[in-house]
Design a protein that fits this description.
The chain has 355 residues and is α+β, with helices and mostly antiparallel strands. It is built from 9 helices and 10 strands. Strands 1, 2, 3, 4, 5, 6, 7, 8, 9 and 10 form a 10-stranded antiparallel beta sheet that branches.
Length: 355
């Protein structure tokens, strides 16, 4: 006489699924910095950005001052051989983007903007998106989120003096010596006199996968067709507060502005997961397309205002690496986005109740 097989209850049948969901949730939380011994969280990093100046509800916590831009991206024939991403196969892709200045003050004078940002959203005809966030520096300040957070915290004013404590920065440089390279660059690099002639770099590495399944590590940059002209320090001090936007408007009124998108390919041994180290200029490079900008508008009511330029929103054929700074940027952008969206919503509710 055979022993009957015991029947499994419905809760027991669902247990494996529940365990999988729990594991995915824990993995998401860990990579986002909410749990685990990571030393810094996205919330902490956003809090530090907020503390760097007066409160600015409804604005980005970093690179708060910006200009919305629009145009198209046209790939070169070689691009489709490097990646299966649809953006490299279709004739052109509409682009929505944003130029920005560093800091949390949306009204800061452009004369303080030694670093500038370019963020883009490319949406292809099949609904896939590619979002990217680039800056005018050639490499990132730190190799880790912890180092970047420590640098920003050391820059906060000391309540007793109203100025940053130099001893705190000395301690940061002793622990994260790569930051000294970034500081040296920022003191010596000439600043372009226009957004139109600024080169923007994606300092994080990404992975391109082609139709054969071959994967290459790359870093990309947007290189302007407009010739470089350095800012005259004497004129900079006398420049109007929003001279970058005014200059951009004048140039676009005269015709489109263009940047070539250049992919730089890593060689064996190059630091793929350390954005604080630039790859040698001797590495192979390929132009994969041209960005053409045709219009710009103020961000207050512009199409870019409510867009989160998360650098890990990627199309098929392009993937992120395990670079911890890249993943921290994605998480920090999410926290900043959620906070400002909540503030905008609360402001709208308060205006409605006051009527």
């Amino acid at each position: 006489m055979s022993t009957p097989t015991p029947r499994r209850g419905p809760m027991l049948l669902l247990l494996p699924i529940a365990l999988i969901v729990l594991a995915l949730a824990l993995l998401f939380a860990w990579t986002g910095g909410w749990i685990g011994d990571k030393g810094v969280t996205p919330q902490t990093m956003v809090n530090t950005a907020e503390a760097s100046g007066s409160p600015q509800p409804g604005f980005r916590r970093a690179h708060a001052k910006g200009i919305c831009i629009a145009g198209t991206f046209t790939p070169t024939p070689v691009a489709a051989q490097l990646s299966t991403a649809r953006v490299f196969a279709q004739p052109s892709t509409p682009v929505l983007g944003r130029f920005s200045n560093p800091g949390n003050d949306p009204h800061a004078p452009d004369s303080k903007a030694a670093v500038r940002g370019m963020a883009l959203q490319l949406k292809t005809d099949d609904g896939q998106e590619w979002r990217m966030a680039m800056n005018s520096f050639p490499f990132f300040a730190s190799s880790t989120p912890e180092g970047f957070q420590a640098m920003n915290a050391a820059r906060l004013p000391d309540p007793a003096t109203g100025k940053p404590d130099p001893e705190k920065m000395k301690a940061v440089l002793a622990r994260y010596p790569e930051i000294a390279n970034f500081m040296a660059w920022s003191k010596s690099a000439p600043t372009p006199n226009s957004l139109a002639n600024t080169r923007f770099n994606g300092v994080n590495a990404f992975l391109l996968t082609d139709a054969r399944g071959e994967t290459r590590a790359v870093r990309w940059s947007m290189r302007p067709h407009t010739p470089f002209v350095a800012t005259d320090p004497a004129r900079l001090q006398a420049a109007e507060r929003d001279f970058l936007a005014a200059d951009l408007g004048r140039r676009l009124a005269a015709g489109p502005l263009r940047w070539d998108m250049v992919m730089q390919f890593a060689a064996p041994g190059d630091p793929i997961e350390d954005p604080s180290k630039a790859w040698p200029d001797t590495r192979p490079e390929t132009v994969v397309g041209t960005l053409t900008l045709v219009s710009a508008e103020a961000q207050a009511d512009g199409a870019c205002r409510d867009l989160n330029f998360d650098p890990l929103i990627l199309p098929q054929g392009i993937a992120g690496t395990d670079d911890p700074v890249l993943h921290a940027r994605s998480s920090v952008y999410s926290v900043s986005f959620n906070r400002r969206e909540r503030e905008v919503s609360q402001g709208a509710q308060q205006q409605g109740s006051a009527r």
